[in-house]
Structure formats: structure tokens, C-alpha cells
Amino acid sequence: MATDDLMNRALATLGDDGPLSVEAIHRLTDLADVPESMVITEVADLLDISPHTLRYYERAGLVEVARDSNGHRVYDADAVRRLVFLTRMRLSGMPMRDLQHYISLVDAGEHTVPERLDMLLEHRDTIRRRIRELSLSLTATEYKIATYGGSTGPDVQDPDTGRTALPHEPL
């Protein structure tokens, strides 16, 4: 099951416009239907990333992976959960250097929780800004779709005035 499938499963239980909660994340990391140990190709398929990316994450110190008697990587549930988190953070734009620092703090222990919290608060603010920027881009796109006679669903609102924009008005 690819990361997109995991995300779709989590979001589907919330509905299209439902409020997001930590439950969506718990659903992403619920690995009950995943084998206790997995090889690199299975994890790559599960997360919809390449084996090369998994090896890179390992070399970068983001995840520790055991080896079997033949030297092949064996991922346990904890490693896969960490990789789910890492892929979500990368998708949200967190730079590798920040991920490396964050993981080094996690590995250093509980006394680093305040610094980890600061990092995540800052990243949350960055994500929120990107969401606002994307929402504005979506509004502009939907406005143009409506201008060309297409259907956009809910009325498109001018982000400055909050009123519904008419198709003949410039936005």
C-alpha cells in the first residue's frame, strides 16, 4: 500500500471537508496489516518511494535498519513508522538538514523535547503559510474555471473582501 493509499485511507474516514485531527495520523501509522518485518522493496512500495531514497535516509542517519544473515535490510514496524513521519515531513517541505537535526534530537532523548517542539512549531507555521498561499492559488484557478464556464463547486470568494466574485469581475 503506497503512501498515497495510506493518506487516502486516512482522509476517506474524515470525509472530503471534515476537520483533520491526530486520528488521521494514527491511521497512517497503524501498521496492523503490515508484516512484522519487511524488505526494502516492500517498504518502498508501501511508502511509494524508491529503494534509493530509503538507502539515502539510512545513510543520512534518519533511520536505523537491521540486516539479516545475508546482509539485506530488514525494516521493523518502528522503522516504518519513522519513515511514514519522515515522508510526511518531506512532503510538507521540511529540509533534510532539519529532519536530520530533528531525528538527532529524538535519538538524544527526552531532554530535547523543548527544542523538538520549537522546530515543529516553526515548521507548522511554514506549512500554514503554504496552505494559505495554495488556497489563494486554488481560488484564482477556480475563478478562471468559472470564467470559462466550468463548474468549481462552492462559490469562489474574493480573499480580500470575502464576497462572492462574479465571473466577469477581475480577481
Structure description:
By secondary structure, the protein is mainly alpha-helical. It has 7 helices and 3 strands. The chain has helices spanning 3-14, 22-29, 40-47, 51-59, 77-91, 96-108, 113-147; strands at 37-38, 66-67, 73-76. A 3-stranded antiparallel beta sheet has the order 1-3-2. β2 and β3 (73-76) form a beta hairpin. The mean pLDDT is 82.
Q: In a nutshell, what does this entry contain?
A:
It is built from 7 helices and 3 strands; from the N terminus they run H-H-E-H-H-E-E-H-H-H.
Topology:
Elements: H1 3-14, H2 22-29, E1 37-38, H3 40-47, H4 51-59, E2 66-67, E3 73-76, H5 77-91, H6 96-108, H7 113-147
Antiparallel strand pairs: 1-3, 2-3
Helix pairs in contact: 1-2, 6-7
The spatial strand order of the largest sheet comes to 1-3-2
Instruction: Quickly give the structural class.
Output: mainly alpha
Binned strand content: under 5%
Percentage of residues assigned to helices: 55-70%
Distance separating the two termini: 41 Å
What global shape is seen?
extended
Keywords:
3-stranded antiparallel beta sheet; mainly alpha; 171 residues; single chain
